[in-house]
Design a protein that fits this description.
Blueprint: E1 13-17, E2 22-27, E3 36-40, H1 43-68
Antiparallel strand pairs: 1-2, 2-3
């Protein structure tokens, strides 16, 4: 089981895309794949969506690890 409390989101970037009029938040994928990227209308929503996506990815990796055992 992956201990989420000890894992830290890395490579975090949050910026406003003026062309799209949206916030873009990104971080490194905890599984070493492509970066995780989300878009939202507000900064708070972009940060929350990125956190949710990161945690969901951790859960998936944990589930896949359990299946391999």
């Amino acid at each position: 089981m992956v201990d989420e409390e000890r894992l830290v989101m890395t490579g975090v970037q949050v910026e406003f895309d003026r062309r799209a009029g949206r916030w873009v938040a990104a971080c490194d994928d905890p599984g070493g794949e492509e970066r995780l990227v989300v878009n939202a209308e507000t900064l708070e929503r972009a940060e929350r969506l990125l956190d949710e996506r990161w945690r969901a990815r951790l859960e998936l990796l944990d589930h896949e690890g359990e299946e391999d055992r």
